[in-house]
């Protein structure tokens, strides 16, 4: 809390691309924020129009990678305290209240994890690694920045706490959309490996995807989630294969 006992203001940030179906709900759930900013990767749907009509500041910026896009957004924020949710994440009233309480009295922590309930094909996924899913969604920008091209994470110069209330994560719109998302992740990971001069071999094409499937489906009990658990394990294993295929194509100069 500042010296004049005023509650610190909050900036809500998001990176967006073709999220028109989620914009209204998302903005309404962040009514407690003092400022809302979207950094949009040149959406072709009504995302930008809907957001602007709801008072959101929208900055259009060509997508490079997730960390650069998020760090750029942070630099646009007027306030120190940031909430950085994805548009497919549901912020409950309980989570909103907890965030406001934490910002008013954060203690020694400079960032906070939020646990996530993952939903896929209309089903709450309990296993396959999703049972421990969490991400930093609240932080003080003076002590934090994003690292990593794909599965970007907040690097904090200080301690990270964890909030009690969970959010619901609806990453699945339809199968093609989910597959496209994994393809983008694979492409960015391949480019990262290429820049590090890593070369793929039979081990990467055969054993890495197999290990991913076995780890997710059996070791992390994805099998308990039924058909959805199998589909998730399969598509994520294939995305590992796709990563190394795209890396091989980069070395072969194949589009």
TrEMBL record:
Recorded superkingdom: Bacteria
Q: Which Pfam families match?
A: Glycos_transf_2 (PF00535)
Please report the stretch or stretches of sequence annotated as the Glycosyltransferase 2-like domain: 15-126
Instruction: Show the InterPro entries listed in the entry.
Output: Glyco_trans_2-like (IPR001173), Nucleotide-diphossugar_trans (IPR029044)
In the record, the note on similarity to other proteins reads:
Belongs to the glycosyltransferase 2 family. WaaE/KdtX subfamily.
For this entry, the protein name equals Glycosyltransferase family 2 protein
